[in-house]
Amino acid sequence: MPSSDVVVQIDQLSKVFRVGFWGKRVTAVDQLSLSVRQGEVFGFLGPNGAGKTTTIKMLMGLIYPTSGRASILGHPIGDPASKAKLGFLPESPYFYDYLTSHEFLNFYGHLFGLWGASLDTRVDELLELVGMTHARDLQLRKFSKGMLQRVGIAQALINDPELVVLDEPMSGLDPVGRKEVRDLIFRLKESGKTVMFSSHILHDAELLCDRVAMIMKGKLVACGQVSDLIERGATHEVEMVVDRLSPEGLAQLRLLASKVVLQGERVMVVLASQQSVDEALDVIRAAKAKLVSLTPHKASLEDLFIREVRGGQPAAEVHV
Fold first, then answer.
1. Is 188 strand, coil or helix?
2. Three-class SS of residue 269?
3. Contact 123, 101 (CB under 8 A)
4. What pLDDT, on the 0 to 100 scale, is given for residue 320?
5. Together in a domain, 166 and 277
6. Is the whole-model pTM more than 0.85?
7. What average pLDDT values come out for the chain (320 residues) when binned by 10 residues?
8. 269 and 167 part of one domain
């Protein structure tokens, strides 16, 4: 039985499409299993074409799975009860661009059965939340990409959902737009919402997420807390820049280093691990050279992504 704090539960979910004249079978999602917990920001990561949007469409009831099952807020996907406390922003939403942002949110409020003064109050609250009060009476056709994303998130919140699902919310945004959407997601978490978003922008996920799942070619390859996943199998390189190093000192550092680059009178040395730092510093002091900089290289989700692509490792979950 799923835990009471599980908001999304996916068990062995698969989707197979038939494409082309001969109906060739293409597996978009392959026996995917994962869960999203209450109150967390959960990142659903992978390259373009990995199966992220297909999975989200199955969760939203827009397409049917070939096999497996999933539930949202304790209700099977496709059950209308699962949508009552669900907010969703698709990757490429279509908005009626002749509407103003106020009219647009009123329209979606009516779809959820909201009317009158309570709806007007809710719309004003959401426009303030997403920083769009100034554009209350501006037609959507005059909005920038970032403004459309913000009003799209406001649309996903009109019914005060417990779970907010955002499909590639930062795709196509400039750095300012991405920061605005990141700040919104932080605010949603602070208000007690559970947020699940898909992305191929790993840096944003690393900043935002409590846990992430990474899929490639429809298969789960990693799932767990960001810090634990990054540490798993990571190398902790240290870069040192040294000035006026003698040939004897350089020869000794070459024995410790995984990479040495000569830059005029300076030498850049990359140590494969932090354990070698003290020994390298002893060599530098003995050679009477000058240490210009010492920079640890922090592992990242991008490093994990590259490791998984190159290694083809099986799915693994870090339990906490």
1. helix
2. strand
3. no
4. 33
5. no
6. no
7. 80 94 92 96 91 96 95 92 91 90 95 92 94 94 91 94 94 84 91 93 86 93 84 72 92 90 89 86 92 80 69 44
8. no
Domain that holds residue 287: 238-296
Same domain, 170 and 66: yes
pLDDT digits (tens, 9 = 90+) for 11-50: 999 999 998 888 899 999 999 999 999 999 999 998 888 9
Residue 50 and residue 218 in contact, taking contact as beta carbons nearer than 8 Å: yes
Cα separations (Å) of 41 from 44, 77, 174?
Answer: 10, 20, 22
Q: What angle do CA 60, 64, 69 make, to 5 degrees?
A: 80
Q: In degrees to the nearest 10, what's the CA dihedral of 94, 140, 165, 82?
A: -70
End-of-domain residue from the set 231, 253, 278: 231
The answer to whether residue 308 is domain-embedded is no
> What six digits make up the tokens of 183?
């700040």
- Domain identity same for 287 and 250: yes
Q: Tell whether the torsion through CA atoms of 293, 294, 298 and 302 is positive or negative.
A: positive
Position 299 scores a pLDDT of 65
Residue 102, in any domain of the structure:
no
Does 125 fall in a domain? no
From CA 6, how far away is CA 43, in angstroms rounded? 15
